[in-house]
Amino acid sequence: MTLPIYDLADLRTVLKRDDMLRVVRDACMQHAQHNVISAKSGELLFQEPPGDCHIRLGYLRGGETFVVKLAMGFYENPSKGLDTNNGLMLVFSSHTGKIIAILNDEGWLTSWRTAAAGALAAKAGAPPQVTALGILGTGHQAEHQAHWAAHLLGTDRVFIWGRDPAKATRLAEKLGHHGLSVHALATVEEVFEHCNVVITCTPSTQAIVPVSVVKPGTHIVALGADSQGKQELDPHILAMAQVIMTDDHRQCAERGELGHALRAGLVTNTADISLGHVLAGSLPGRINADDVTVADLTGLAAQDIAIATLAVGLVRAVAPGDADNVTPS
After folding, report:
1. What CA–CA distance (Å, rounded) separates 112 from 127?
2. Residue 231 region, left (φ>0) first, then alpha (ψ -120 to 50), else beta?
3. Strand ranges (DSSP E) for the chain?
4. Which pLDDT value is given to residue 156?
5. Local confidence pLDDT in tens for the 329 residues of the chain
6. Domain limits of the chain?
7. Distances in Å between the alpha carbon of 246 and those of 222, 223, 234, 257, 269?
8. Rounded distance, CA 54 to CA 39, Å?
9. 293 near 125, Cβ under 8 Å?
10. Could you give the CA distance from residue 216 to residue 198 in angstroms, rounded to a whole number?
11. What is the structure's pLDDT at 325?
12. Helix, strand, coil percentages, rounded to 5, for the chain
């Protein structure tokens, strides 16, 4: 029997945004309820050139499959005409250990599940009236977050900042062709002046958001600090936050923004709540309109399991002759 290998074209044909939002939301809730068995994430860091490789694996209790995922990011690749991200997922039977499929997604599934998680976290802590969405970063994830989070927040106003102003301008122009009103700004401070929901998605190794720019009522979703040594927020921001949501407490305490605040003695080990509980409606992501709130995301094996399982099921359901008739989202 030939081993099924599904490539990026197969996956993009069948996966839709609403389906991915649904399964990622459920994955976060299942993780919060301790229904996911997963090992500690593996991590390789590279300096010359800068990059990282993450290995995640796990399964849902009672589920039919378990998943091993490799995701890579090499940040100088665009200058070489290459994509920043790459990766694949291996799907096995949780009953026999037999491999079911290889998802040669080139890192796309990780990008989309991260986009879904960021958008869900943005909605979970957003103030009642969203003035605009701010994006710090100019890479592929910044583009995804602008689309996905703006969709869930119900806004078309987006402001972009990047360390390279030319990249920020190009991204703003690109997003503007997709129905969004987008402006590139020169400073982080300007983004926070215009926006009360801000998503950070850079590979920064030092804080790029000072506490002084954060106004009452602001919600921040921090995505970039997913490896040792990365940081985007001044840890004092977490100290001033009325609500801190984490996708996984242990991971965020080790490598996320929460970890920087913990090591600085600015918050306690019980300062955060689970994003999964907020998405389930059992805990509030915001108490008052003028609260400062933070969501710290480091990525979950539960999300990879959910996306991989969804992908295999959908690709298998499409007859070879009908694949061209499925419209991607």
Report:
1. 24
2. beta
3. 5-7, 36-38, 42-46, 51-60, 65-74, 85-93, 99-104, 133-136, 157-161, 181-184, 197-200, 205-209, 219-222, 231-233, 243-246, 272-274, 293-296
4. 95
5. 578 899 999 999 999 999 999 999 999 999 999 999 988 888 888 988 998 898 989 999 988 899 999 999 898 898 898 888 899 999 999 999 999 999 999 999 999 999 999 999 999 999 999 999 999 999 889 999 999 999 999 999 999 999 999 999 999 999 998 889 999 999 999 999 999 999 999 999 999 999 999 999 999 999 998 888 899 999 999 999 999 999 999 999 999 999 999 999 999 999 999 999 999 999 999 999 999 999 999 999 999 999 999 999 999 888 454 433 333 33
6. 5-109+302-318, 117-300
7. 10, 11, 17, 9, 12
8. 12
9. yes
10. 13
11. 34
12. 40, 25, 35
Tokens representing residue 90 in the block: 């291996």
How does strand 293-296 pair with strand 5-7? unpaired
At residue 319, the pLDDT reads 47
Q: What does the chain come to in residues?
A: 329
Token pair, residue 93, equals: 């039977």
- In the block, tokens 């490799």 appear at 70
Q: What is the DSSP letter of 99?
A: E
Neighbours of 33 (CB within 10 A): 14
DSSP letter for each residue of 179-238: T-EEEE-S-HHHHHHH-SEEEE----EEEEE-GGGPPTT-EEEE-S--STT-EEE-THHH
Give pLDDT, residue 195: 98
CATH of domain 5-109+302-318: 3.30.1780.10
Contact by Cβ (8 Å): 270, 111: no
Query: Would you state the torsion angle of the CA atoms of residues 24, 30, 31, 32, taken in this order, to the nearest 10 degrees?
Result: 110
Whether the CB-CB separation of 89 and 59 falls below 8 Å is answered with no
How far is Cα 16 from Cα 13, in angstroms, rounded to an integer?
A: 8
Q: What angle do CA 60, 297, 257 make, to 5 degrees?
A: 135
We find that the CATH architecture of domain 117-300 is 3-Layer(aba) Sandwich (3.40)
